[in-house]
Every structure is written in C-alpha cells, then in structure tokens.
Design brief:
The protein is an alpha/beta fold. The chain has six helices and eight strands, in the order βββαβααβαββαβα. Helix content is 34%, strand content 22%.
Length: 248
C-alpha cells in the first residue's frame, strides 16, 4: 500500500509489551524508513480486527510507526465479528479509565524505550469504543502529540464518562461524529464541545451531516459513508501533519 507520500508499509507483525497487569499483544505496522512519529490506534468494540490492522498499515504508508494494542488482553478475547455486538458490549463496559491509562502508557513506554519516539511525537487515534478510550487517554496522560476521536460514545454520558476531566487535556484534539449517530446525540456533542471550550483545550469538532455511527468504517458497507469518511480522513491527516510534522 502506498499514498501520495511515496512511502510503503514495510512490515507488520504482533509484538508483546509488558503492562502493569500483565502482557499485552500489540499489532505494529512499520514504514519502509525509520519513523520519527507514531500513532497508537485504539480498537472499536470488536478488537484489533482486520479493519483496525488495515488502519495501522495505512498510517505506516504515511510514514508513521503505528501500534494497535489489544485492549481485550485482560479477558482473552482476540476479536469479534461485527455481528457480535451483544457480546462486545460487556467487554468494553469492563474497560474503564484506569485500564485504558495502563494500556496506553505501556505502548508509550515501548515507543519511547524501544523505538526512540517520545509521547510528544505520538498521536492517539481511536474509533467507536476506542474513540472514548482516546479521549480518556487525553484526560489522563500529559504530553501527547495529538489525539483524534472517531465517533466515540460514552465520553459525555455513561459509567466511564470523562467529559468532566476536559480541563486535564493538554494535547490538541480532533473529533469526528455523524449527525445521525444515535450513540452520540447532538446534546452530547454540545456537552463535549462546551466542556472543551470552557477548559481552553485546542480542539476541532466536525459533525458530518447524514452520517451515522461508524461512518468511516469501510469494512461495514451498510454504515460506511464515503464522502464523510474521505473528508474526515483528509482533516485527520492535515491535523496530524500540523501537530506532528514529518521530518524534513
């Protein structure tokens, strides 16, 4: 896979990193040259499946070292099918802010110690449940380079809501949500934007008219909205290039 940067994802493989609660698998995609910036890709409710691995490889094609940690490592579930929504809900419901912080911290430590890439040169990009996880990481971990949230439910309302900690965010933040997403209704979007504004966070928030939940997931044709997905990714790449510019 290549893009306009002329870079190819050279290798992709699983590694194991040590967390405070035990080992965790991480899917890693590397570009074909030494990377000086990284993206931690946080999974949907269905694990580090083919779609999340593909996103990691797309980032590698743009010159990032991409790492997708298996946030289900505590329960032994590798990945679920998209039809297994009922099975996924209790799994993600069990992963609260402390667990997310432990796991993202472990990947950041690996990137710093094993790859020479600091937190300030690392973005966190999450999707669905991973969007909530990315926002949570931003409230708990200082010094991240950037954070991108694709349609993350549970940020403003729910047992693991963290919108009240917006004041603790020091990373630039980009949020994408569909106007027809039932899991993140307009009043929750407004609550998130209001909290971020009151806290003085450097953020962008984009609502995509007519798009629903998972509108950027091209592995789910029924939900995928091509035009909205394309604009969201264009904005994401521009945002990351602004805050984590590639080396000359």
């Amino acid at each position: 896979m290549s893009d306009q940067c002329g870079i190819r994802a050279a290798t992709n493989h699983w590694i194991t990193v040590t967390t405070a609660v035990g080992p965790m698998r991480v899917y890693v995609a590397r570009p074909d040259r030494t990377a000086d910036r990284a993206v931690i890709v946080l999974q949907e409710a269905f694990g580090v499946n083919d779609h999340i691995q593909d996103i990691a490889r797309r980032y590698a094609a743009r010159g990032f070292l991409a790492a997708a940690p298996d946030l289900f490592h505590r329960n032994g579930v590798a990945a679920l099918e998209y039809e297994q929504h009922a099975e996924a809900m209790p799994l993600i419901g069990a992963i609260g802010p402390d667990a997310i912080t432990v796991d993202v911290d472990a990947v950041l430590e690996h990137l710093a110690q094993g790859e020479g890439i600091s937190a300030s040169r690392t973005a966190v990009n999450g999707f669905c449940f991973g969007g909530r996880a990315a926002f949570t990481a931003a409230t708990r971990i200082r010094g991240l380079g950037a954070v991108v949230v694709f349609y993350g439910p549970g940020i403003a309302v729910g047992p693991h809501a963290v919108v009240d900690r917006a004041k603790d965010i020091d990373a630039p933040l980009l949020l994408h949500v569909g106007s027809e997403d039932p899991t993140i209704p307009a009043e929750q979007v407004a609550a998130i934007e209001g909290a971020l504004t009151a806290a003085g966070v450097d953020f962008e928030s984009h609502v995509y008219t007519g798009a629903g939940h998972a509108f950027a997931c091209d592995a789910r044709p029924r939900l995928y909205v091509e035009d909205s997905a394309r604009r969201a990714w264009q904005r994401t790449h521009a945002f990351l290039d602004e805050h984590l510019p590639p080396a000359a």
